[in-house]
Amino acid sequence: MSDAKRNKTLTLTHWGAYEVETEGQSIRAVRPFQDDPDPSPIGYSMVGVERCRVRMPSVRESWLKGGPGTAPARRGKDRFVEVGWDRALDLVAAELDRVRTEFGNEAIYAGSYGWASAGRFHHAPTQLHRFMNSIGGYTRSVNTYSLAAAEVILPHVLGLGWWPFQNALTSWDVIAESTELVVAFGGIPLKNSQIEHGGVGRHELRGWLRRWADRGTRFVNVSPIADDLGDSLRPAWMPIRPGTDIALMLALIHTLIAEGSYDRAFVRDYCTGWEALAAYITGSEDGIAKDAEWASGITTIRPSEIRSLARSMVERRSMINVSWSLQRSHHGEHVIWAAIALAAAVGQIGLPGGGFGIGYGAMASVGNGAANSWLPFLHWGRRPIDSFIPVARISDMLIHPGEEFTYDGGIYTFPDIRLVYWAGGNPFHHHQDLNRLRTAWQRPDTVVVNEPFWTATAKHADVVLPSTTPLERNDLGGAPTDSHVFAIQQALAPVGGARDDYEIFGGLADRLGVGDGFSEGRTSDQWVRHLYEKLRQREPGAPAFEEFWEAGFLDRRYAGDQPKRVLLEDFREDPERHPLSTPSGRIELYSATIAGFGYDDCPPHPTWMAPREWLGEAGELDLHLVSNQPRTRLHSQWDHGSTSRSAKIAGLESMRMHPADADVRGLEAGDVVRVFNARGACLAGVATTDRLRRGVVELATGAWYSPGPEPDLDSTCLHGNPNALTSDLGTSSLAQGPAAHTCLVRVEKWQGAVPTHTAFALPPIAAL
Ligand SMILES: Nc1nc2c(c(=O)[nH]1)N[C@H]1C(S)=C(S)[C@@H](COP(=O)(O)OP(=O)(O)OC[C@H]3O[C@@H](n4cnc5c(=O)[nH]c(N)nc54)[C@H](O)[C@@H]3O)O[C@H]1N2
Ligand SMILES: Nc1nc2c(c(=O)[nH]1)N[C@H]1C(S)=C(S)[C@@H](COP(=O)(O)OP(=O)(O)OC[C@H]3O[C@@H](n4cnc5c(=O)[nH]c(N)nc54)[C@H](O)[C@@H]3O)O[C@H]1N2
Ligand SMILES: [Mo]
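^ thats the input. predicted complex w/ MGD below
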């Protein structure tokens, strides 16, 4: 083939921008974006874009024959029948109409959580929500799997919602200039900073960490896993028992109180509720002093280490970082609250390089200071009805229609869902306790899923509508927190019969008589141009559309250097002129509002409560499972791709454990194990390392879920998805967030032949 037939286009993913070289319908090469100093290897997986694709609209056979509600227990087991687009869209439109007419729009659940793709126009959940609002509304979801507990507690403590808070975080450059000690609970994991919601032009965190270290900044990594903070930073490692950080934070405050070194003026002038918190910490409230000895019994960190850490924090300019993972646990709200209380006692909040941050390293942009750039987005439309659930309560909702739930002081009722519509997410990867979700998933009459790939969620649907990937369409992409905006350029024709989500919902909207309102008369290319023009209205320095499209990207650093940011600087300078939006105008270390809610599991000041599952009361389940974010993919995306698959062991997700823990179970690296508890089981391949504390195993999220055959292996994922094991417990009555990191397991060697998983196999498809 001659070179002339090769084409190069630029595409954007949540893990970076790449140049894609194609020849006809094949991808010949994927190269990182020229200006990216630290590109992510995840992008190379795109070479296999045709693998595991849904080729044609596919309908579950029993549902097709018997109509909605037929044999729901056969979801995930039945054959699919491929049908043409017209038939599929007729079926789905008729079913949407039946459900909204007979049961009302709240009977449609389209909360549809998920990351979908980076492009802002073809963002599948946005398209879905806009479509659903145009047909009368739907039951939505609130908050995120990432941060639910933090999102709900922060307004009570700081008077800030999540985005204003994250945008105000102290920026990396200020840390580089001023911070002498970084105490990182859950580390600052570089593996996670590969990602940014909406895309990354330049991965810069690695460079900044080096600059922090070069300056002589000391690092403490408080985490069960040493790798959460890079070796090049020479961190001190405190391998804490998972789920016990609150106890450590309280004991650090106790030391400062006992030694008289906490910042009296700060807690008096900038906080409310210090007395109540101090009474609890010193034990005058309940007779138990939350001192270093007490915390040592819980966290397994030596009392002398706790005391000396507390002293270093007040002697130096110190920054406390709390990873998002910490609040993805039972009582996760209180981890955030305790960290803020610790920072208040240290007294450096609002000073350059001092105080606290939440989630440095969790994504590429957290702390980059580039916040507040504006990006055009497609509007969801007006919400005709207001029915919602906290996002991680999906199984509860499906299993308990009509029952009450609490959320942030309110009492609400779970709707009776007849139809579930998902686009751009993978609940059969992301939700906790997948065996419970499978039971819950049998309740609705109909499940519709738009997906490019045959994921477990697609396999558990009644109707699967094949979507394109970003490689197959034009779009505009970027993150408001990133320096670049990209022209995502179509590299391939749609694979198989795939259609853009916009086209799919357009087809449904036409059938339901709202086509014009949904499309506003624009084709998708016209929409992309329209969104870009909105950007130009805000930023007259941006080039004309044609020029932008030709260049492939816009480097918005033309706007000049971003201002250095110091979190809560104004408030510190003058709390009267810049009060917080809390009831007291101060940082609330005790919240009368939360006291008023009267929740047993969410007391009104930071409190240690033993999580439901932890190594302190382990019993038979003697290992703590950390199911963190995977380094070789984004969640479940491209698990079928080369980067993710290269890290598997015998085709199974790899699980890391301490060599001593392996030894006592007669295990060696490379062995296949069964990981189990009362909720379920999964297989995994063993890797051993002393980078984990003993008693902890690490099995990252995202291996495509592949339940084994009935009757014996039905509740076992044969591929290694940790959500076969995690608990579907809410963080507390306040936020009802996911608590994935609160999970105990046992591990044993798999005996006999290893059953093969079918994660990447197509489901049975009947010829029409
Ligand atoms: N045990 C455990 N579980 C967890 C977590 C944990 O820490 N531990 N973390 C949680 C967190 S923080 C998150 S954010 C969630 C993530 O959960 P999800 O966001 O649901 O995970 P993804 O794998 O990103 O799923 C996105 C899906 O969208 C599809 N997709 C991509 N592009 C398109 C498109 O253009 N159109 C359509 N229709 N589909 C598209 C992809 O193929 C993929 O199946 O997982 C949560 N689950
Ligand atoms: N490569 C990659 N990067 C990602 C993602 C991905 O899928 N892949 N997902 C993105 C998303 S959606 C999100 S929300 C963020 C999530 O960002 P995080 O929530 O911070 O990510 P995790 O990897 O779950 O957790 C970080 C570390 O916390 C530690 N940890 C777990 N439990 C405890 C505990 O009880 N105490 C302490 N001290 N440490 C603990 C674990 O060792 C873990 O490696 O990551 C984003 N970045
Ligand atoms: Mo997330």
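The radius of gyration is 26 Å.
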